[in-house]
Specification:
alpha+beta
Amino acid sequence: MHLRKATFGDVEAIHKLVNDYAQQGVMLPRSRNSIYETLRDVIIAEEDDRLVGVGSLHLSWDALAEVRALAIAPGFQRRGIGRQIVEELLIEGRALGVKTFFTLTYQPEFFGTLGFSEVTKEELPQKVWKECINCPKFPNCDEVAMVKREG
């Protein structure tokens, strides 16, 4: 398994993986358009030329970034792929000067093992909510807000 930045050729596989989980209600859906627009944010995990995981780091505000759209293909979970993707996203963010990482998740236990702590949504700046208006669950968000602060 190796990690790399996503390319245009990955969009359909990303779209399918994320939206298959969204149909199960365990993550939020992503349109092809939003995947194209944020493609530079995305890291892919591949094994034998097959996409087995995806995650992205979205810069939100001054030294603040969101880890989002983390999905591991069925049959590849619990092998450390999600951890490797998140750790790579954190390295990338630190290199850019990110001081606070956050995530909105249905998997707080997983992110807790990576040093994220649960916070109230009100503790995050309003700037992070600009995309929520397009969410099918707006305004009744049921995701858990978590943060990881650096130094």
